[in-house]
Amino acid sequence: MKKLNRRSILRGTGLAALSAGLGTAQRTQDCNCTRGSDGEMLDTGTSELRAMIERYEVDLSDLDRVYSLPGSSARHARLERFYSEQLHLVEAVNFDALSQAGRIDYLLLRGRLLHDQKQLAAESRKEEDIAPLIPFQQDIIRLEEARRRMETLDPQKSAVTLNKLATDIEAAKAYLANSKLAPAVMNRAAIRLVQLRRYFRAWFNFYHLYDPRFAWWTDAEFKRADDALDAYAKLVHTASGVAGPIEGLEGRGGRGGFRDDDPETVEKTAPSSTGANKSGPAIGSDQELSGIGPVGNEALVEALTAAMIPYSPDELIKIANREFAWCDREMLRASAEMGFGNDWKKAVEAVKNKFVDPGQMIYLVRDLSREAIEFLEKKELVTVPPLVKEDYWEEAMTPRMQLVNPFFTGGETIQVSSPASSQTLQQRMEALRGNNMFFARATVFHELIPGHHMQFYMTERYRIYRSLFSTPFWSEGMAFYWEMLLWDLGFTHTPEQRVGALVWRMHRCARIVFSLSFHLKKMTAVECVQFLMDWVGFDRANAEGEVRRSFNGSYPPIYQCAYMLGALQFYALRQELVGSGKMSSRAFHDAMYREGDIPVEMLRLALNGQKVTRDYQTSWMFYKSLG
Question: pTM for this structure?
Answer without folding.
Answer: 0.84
